[in-house]
Amino acid sequence: MEAYRDQYAKLFNDGKGVAVIGISTDDDTVQYNWARDAHFPIFFASDPSGSVVKLYDVKYPALNYAKRVLFVIDPSGKITHVMDPFKELVDDSYTELAAAVKAAGEKKP
Domain coordinates of the chain in residue numbers? Predict the structure, then answer.
């Protein structure tokens, strides 16, 4: 998540016309304190029941936790790019993400 924060301006047009939402099954209080202390410029949502995990089928089949999947959604609400799993430690992942965000932002709703 720190890479999102550190590359926010470049990856997400400095927040102009882009909303970034990190969804986790962590408790909202824990998540809030962690995000505040780390100075994240993005939104976070807490999904302790795993509803979003089930809805988008992003759970490791043999394990009891969610995968790191990244969805890019255009202004009309259509998913235009999926990175499954999102490899946060690989530099090329951020190049791919930046291109996908740019392409989604160029689509007219």
Answer: 2-106
- 66 phi, psi to nearest 5 deg: -80, 150
The CATH architecture one would assign to domain 2-106 is 3-Layer(aba) Sandwich (3.40)
Q: Are 83 and 93 in contact (CB under 8 A)?
A: yes
DSSP 8-class letter at 107:
S
Mean pLDDT throughout 38-48? 87
Whether 53 and 63 have beta carbons less than 8 Å apart is answered as no
- CA 6 from centroid of its chain's CA atoms: 14
- Each residue's pLDDT tens digit, 52-107: 989 998 888 888 788 888 899 998 899 999 999 888 889 899 999 999 999 998 87
